[in-house]
Structure formats: C-alpha cells, structure tokens
Amino acid sequence: MAKGTPCMALLVLLVGVADRVVSTATDGLLPNGNFEERPDKSQLNGTIVKGRFSIPRWEISGFVEYIDGQKQGEMVLPVPEGACAVRLGNDASIRQKINLTRRTEYSITFSAARTCAQAEKLNVSVIFDSGLLPIQTVYTSSGWDSYAWAFRAKHTVVWLTIHNPGVEEDPACGPLIDSVAIKTLSRPRRTNSNMLRNGDFEEGPYIFPGSTWGVLVPPMDEDDFSPLPGWMIMSDTKSVKYVDAPHHRVPHGARAVELVAGRETALVQEVATVPGRSYRMLFYVGDAANGCEASMIVMAYAARASQQVQYDSHGVGGHKRGKMDFVAVDKLTRVVLQSMNYHMKPDGTLCGPVVDDVSLVSVRKGAARRLFR
C-alpha cells in the first residue's frame, strides 16, 4: 500500500482461547455494533481510546478514536446511526468474537466514511484470505456508505476484525466506522420457472432499517462468497448498490439492484445450459425514485446474444420489461447485466438503472425441468 493512501480491511479470523465474551450471531447489529455503549471517561484521552477493552463488546488495537459529535478542525463528523462511531488510525483495528454455525454463509454490513482533506486518495478495501475488494468510491452526498461482504463460516467461533492497514502522516486521518451488522444468508434454489438463483434479489445483505442509501456490494473474485447469493459482481474497483422497497422504488418484491457504476461493473451469474438449446431471459429495468433523471440503457449478454433495453427515467420510479432470446453454445452460460452509461443525481452522487426479477427458462417445452438441479 502506497504511503498516504489509507485503506480499511475486513477480516474474519479463527479464534484461539475463549478469553472474552462471545456474541451469538443473530440478524442485525452486533452487540454494540453502533458503538452507542460508551467507554468510561477514564479510558479516554480526549477522543483517543486508551484501554484495549474500553469500548464495550469490542477489543481494540492501535490508534482508535471514539467519535461523539466531534469536529476535526472546521469539519463536523456526523455518524449515520445514533451519535457515536470509531475512527481507525494507522494500523488500528477493532474486533469482536462471535459464535456462528459452521458451513453457514453470512454477510457482514458495515458503514464507513473518510475524514481528512486527502479524502480523494482514500482507498478503502475489504480483505479476507487472499481476496481484495476495493471500495474506494463514495456514493452518497453525506460521505457515509454501507458495504457488504460475505463468507462461509469454517469455525463455530471467530474474530470479526475491522482493520485499517493504511499509513498516513496524520494517524487521525483514518476512516470512520459505524453500524456493524451480520445476517445469515440462505441459498435460493433454481426452480421450474427460473433457472437463475436469486433472480429476484430477495436474498441479500442486511440493510439498516433507517438507511436511505442502500448497501454497496463490491467486486469479488469468482471463488468468493457473494452477499447476493447466486450473483457475482465483476469489476476492478466499482460496486453495485442493493436497495430496498421502504426507501426506493423497486419493480418487483422488496429488493433490487441499482447499477451505479456504468460500464465499470457487471452483474453476472453462471448457469448450466444445453448447447444448441434456445433460452429466454426476462428482466425489469427501472429507476429507484431517487432523483436519477436520465436516458438509461441496460445491456444483457448471454452466449453470443446481446440485448439493449432503454429506459427514460424521470427519477420518480417506474420500470419496463426487457427480453433476450439466445441459443446456448456451451454447457455453462454466463448471464450478464450491465449499465452502459454513467449517471449522476443533482447532488453529484452516482446513480443508475435498477434491475430486478431476472428469469431464465428454456423455450423448448418440457426441457427446463430436466435442467434444474
């Protein structure tokens, strides 16, 4: 990591001797996941946390600050949930021991914000094993974004660690962290009416009830577990946004995906097909009623086929149906959805078309049933 470019890493580590209280993972905030349980005043030197176990339910290491309506110079440091958050300086970390079910998949959702004037250079990453998931772009006008990351539990007790391995001249120029939550992920099955898993995006990461900005799902390696079961996010550095019906207009059901990074990211799923057989893919394209006004284009790809769907958004909600027919050329076919243009809201934040209710069927009567496993 280059000097002057801070980053954050999320790690799940195997626990050793059980020397601290273990939290049992249930969907929602981790115990004191919003840091509203405060350190004792005797454990603070201004904003700097002195004791290793000073923040209830968390263990800290390195330069960690407890932010409670604080200012950095003339800049106010608001937090997205409640009044408090933590800031991780150079090589600082916070961690909590949690109890899981082995071989079960989980998604972590957490909020992060950059703080210092050098914010444009901030490179925030989520790392697990050898996987690096960069999340360096800010997608909200507040500066806070929520991110999701998924894993399969290999042990019943693990440390959940959030670590900033960055090196800054000012150790206080690290990211703010707030609202750390966990969710157990199910594994949606393919059905007789849809060869795609989780085509309606109803299964996904935890979304904070009061959050109006959704959850970013960063790019991942093909072997990583996805916070959107069944789907991969293919990109170098950009994310897609997972949105919910209470805060956005969703074409179908309660959840959808907003393609906020133009051509730089794609939503991908691989499905078993029979070479030479014909298939039909259906999907919705719309807008999230978040003020994103633009002529939007979503491109669908599969095998040798592609289909462009244009949707003229007025930023107030709405959708249309897209369709693509193709003939499989291999036993495995990648289905891809991608926004072809970049869009911004009036406040300058990135936005894009919403996709939802993606289905794939064999158009040969009776053939689909034999393909589903």
From TrEMBL:
Predominant cellular place of this UniProt entry's protein: secreted
Keyword field contains Transcription: no
Domain DUF642: 28-183, 195-360
Coiled coil feature spans: none
InterPro entries linked to this entry: DGR2-like_dom, Galactose-bd-like_sf, Pectin_Meth_Modulator
Pfam families, per the entry: DUF642
Signal peptide: 1-23
Subcellular location(s) per record: Secreted, Cell wall
Keywords of this entry: Cell wall, Glycoprotein, Secreted, Signal
Highest taxon listed in the record's lineage: Eukaryota
Claim: Secreted is one of the keywords in the record: yes
Protein name: DUF642 domain-containing protein
UniProt organism field: Lolium multiflorum
